[in-house]
Amino acid sequence: MTASMVRTTTGTLSARNLDYLDEHLRRYVSSGKLAGTLVAIYRQGQLAHWSAQGMRDRERDKPMVDDTIFRIYSMTKPITSVALMQLYERGLVQLDDPVERYIPSFKKLCVYQSGAYPNFVTTPCERPMTVRDLLSHQSGLTYGFITRTNVDAAYREAGIAGAPGVGTTPHATLEEMVDALADIPLEFSPGTAWNYSNSTDVVGRLVEVISGQRLDAYMQNQVFGPLGMVDTAFWVSPDKADRFATNYRGAAGGGIEIVDDPTTSAYLQEPTICFGGGGLVSTASDYLKFARMLLGRGQLEGTRILGRKTLDLMTRNHITGGKTVAAASVAPSFQLGSYPGSGFGLGFAVALDTTDGQLSSTPGEFNWSGAASTHFWVDPTEDTTVVFMTQYMSLSPQTRYNLAREMRAIIYGALD
User: Fold this and answer.
1) CA distance 169 to 289
2) Count of Cβ atoms closer than 10 Å to residue 258 Cβ
3) 318 and 340: one domain?
4) Which entry of 44, 127, 346, 400 is 20 to 30 Å from 378 by CA?
5) Are residues 140 and 231 part of one domain?
6) What residues are paired with 98 via a beta bridge?
């Protein structure tokens, strides 16, 4: 059994192309590549398309429903970045501030030269790591799951995780984990390259230090509550557990298999550590509220979360020398949600050159993805935002589907 619920107000979108979109996602579900999907398109002040297909829990025959709860992994990053920039707007932090001003353990940061955990040969950083380095992934940090160098191997040895279910950590709090990061050399001197990393977890720690609140409390008070994001949190409470989707991955013999069962998931327990780079769960409607706030230049239905000039700053390319992510990255296979022709702002990939990216888009569009194949983008020029939810883990480029690019081709083709 599969579910299929489609509500469309075509307005300025082609009904024919929206049918293409639903057919395309239906093929993923019917072929067994995905258990279920949910896509929402908001354009020019109205919900233009909402489509839920397939199952949220295939093994228990539970259909995808409007309020299904998803692990959004790295789609947490834009929210954490917005949280820190709210504090920037209060004059409590500046982008060029050295991180060590707020996290003293970062005074000892150095750059890897040779050796293996825990015996390294290092050199001093060319300059201190700044807040902007963290927000733009130019910090020199990395992720343990990238498995490219002795530095990311050290992350695995030290238990530096990035989200529940993506590695394990012995650290009880974000403070403990971030301090442990300071004992591991950087991949490169801050500001000299781009690398996807635990940077946004450190951004989350900055929010805690500067605000005096734990990250989840700050987000609830300053983002989720004001926007009415009632199902977004760092865990799934018992009263919501029935709506929690199963997370899958590709199976060796084809199809999909469970990687995180919603009845035994780590997300069912209230955490002591809140991963700013990948810890949240959410619904499509909740995340659409966040995306609509971004589309509204910092406000949603009269509630302002962020100043419009602050958001303008966040959605410009901040990579040193104006480079693209592809040109600046030390690990091209792990650019993840970015594309050729993309730069990176303060929490988002930013479209620069759509011909280089070879996809339908608009310069200035900004976006990001999650490890379970979730994705969103905001296109201010077209007054459009899209939120896509599913639960399929694909950290490897070899098993990752091209969903975000395929949906762009279809949805941009639908614009009147």
Assistant:
1) 32
2) 17
3) yes
4) 400
5) no
6) 130
**Cα angle for residues 6, 11, 14 (degrees, 5° grid):** 70
Last residue of a domain, one of 189, 211, 233: 211
User: What is the DSSP annotation of 97-123?
Assistant: SBGGGT-GGGGG-EEEEEEETTEEEEE
Q: How confident is the model at residue 6 (pLDDT cuts 50, 70, 90)?
A: low
- My answer on whether 365 and 324 are in the same domain is yes
Query: Residue 319 pLDDT more than 70?
Result: yes
Tokens (6 digits) for 259: 């990687």
HSE (CB half, 13 Å, CA atoms) of 192? 12
Q: Mean pLDDT, to the nearest integer, of 110-133?
A: 97
**Domains contained in the chain, number:** 2
CB atoms within 10 A of CB 413: 14
Please tell me the least confidently modeled range out of 63-72, 110-119, 129-138, 253-262: 253-262
> Rounded to whole angstroms, how far apart are CA atoms 370 and 287?
12
Would 4 be classed as within a structural domain? no
Question: Could you tell me the residue range of the domain that residue 241 belongs to?
Answer: 214-413
Structure tokens at 336: 């993840």
How many whole angstroms from its chain centre is CA 139?
17
- Render the burial of 3-19: b for 16+ CB within 10 Å, e for the rest: beeeebeeeebeeebbe
pTM higher than 0.70, yes or no?
A: yes
> What is the rounded CA–CA span in Å between residue 223 and residue 243?
22
Q: How far is CA 25 from the centre of its chain?
A: 21
Residue 148 confidence (pLDDT) above 80: yes
The reported pLDDT for the residue numbered 1 is: 34
Q: Tokens for 310?
A: 């602050």
Say how far apart CA 382 and CA 313 lie, in whole Å: 19
Residue 119 is assigned to a structural domain of this protein: yes
Domain-embedded: residue 50: no
CATH number at residue 393: 3.40.710.10
Q: Classify residue 96: in a domain, yes or no.
A: yes
Confidence band of 32 (pLDDT split at 50, 70, 90): very high
Helix, strand, coil % over all residues of the chain, rounded to 5: 35, 20, 45
- Same domain? 317 vs 340: yes
- Kindly state whether residues 205 and 122 are assigned to the same domain: yes
Domain boundary among 180, 211, 242: 211
Residues recorded for the chain? 416
Q: State residue 2's pLDDT score.
A: 44
- The residues with which 51 forms a beta bridge, in sequence order, are 6, 39
